[in-house]
Amino acid sequence: MSTDYEKPAFKGIKVGVVREGYHRWENAPDKCAYLRNWHRHLFKISVTIEITNNDRELEFHEMQKLVNHIIDTNYIPEYEDHTFSFSWESFYDDTGQGRDEDVFVINSCEDFAEWLGKRLYELFEHKRGITVSVSEDGENSGMVVFG
């Protein structure tokens, strides 16, 4: 049996985290006017990070912890000067009625994917390909690719 084969064009690991959150599209066109109101989603965040070997050079669980850490604390080791443009904040509906708990609020899936992707790409010193996808309830998603 021959062991000659083409090397893959890309090799990576993929980790995922889920956050309950709210967002709205303030400038939605009239045909999608319902999106102007705050609405809830389970934002499913998927991160793919390039690897160079099959011996788990990056451990799934450690990468998942890193992604959670960046989101939860708005802090990236060695990159303290970066701030998180989205927030855990008190959520208010359009009538100004507040809720007691803090909730995760983002502008768009694309914005959040780009924010997280940039930080991971910087953290890995631009040496690994990074893909971040953020979906609304596992259905529709925004995606960015670095490297």
Topology:
Layout (H helix, E strand, L loop, with lengths): L11 E12 L15 E12 L9 H14 L13 E6 L5 E8 L3 H15 L6 E7 L3 E7 L1
Parallel strand pairs: 1-4
Antiparallel strand pairs: 1-2, 2-5, 3-4, 5-6
Features:
147 residues, alpha+beta, Tetrahydropterin Synthase, Chain A, six-stranded mixed beta sheet, 2 helices, 6 strands, elongated
Quick recap of the structure?
With 147 residues, the chain is an alpha+beta fold. It is built from 2 helices and 6 strands.
Written overview of the protein:
- The chain is an alpha+beta fold and 147 residues long.
- The protein has a single domain (12-146), classed as Tetrahydropterin Synthase, Chain A.
- Helix content is 20%, strand content 35%.
- It has helices spanning 60-73, 109-123, and strands at 12-23, 39-50, 87-92, 98-105, 130-136, 140-146.
- Strands 3-4-1-2-5-6 form a six-stranded mixed sheet.
- Strand 5 and strand 6 (140-146) form a beta hairpin.
- The longest helix is centred in the C-terminal third of the chain and has 15 residues, at 109-123.
